[in-house]
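Hi U.,

Before I forget, here's the chain from the pilot set. I'm dumping it here mostly so it's searchable later in email.
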Amino acid sequence: MARTSSSFQWLGALLLLWLALSGVAHAAGRERLSLDSGWLFHRGDIPTPPIKGHGNSYGQAKAGG
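Structure:
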């Protein structure tokens, strides 16, 4: 019984070591990017065309019926 417990402890220690080292490797490869470059924004709501007829309404657009 003691051998099984000892092997689980070694397995847990190796797992924690692997997780710690893999996190360090990923952190070193990070790059900082700006998401604001080249973006254009529209102020306010975008006007939608008026609904023409009953077929374009929400009730007809739902799935299953």
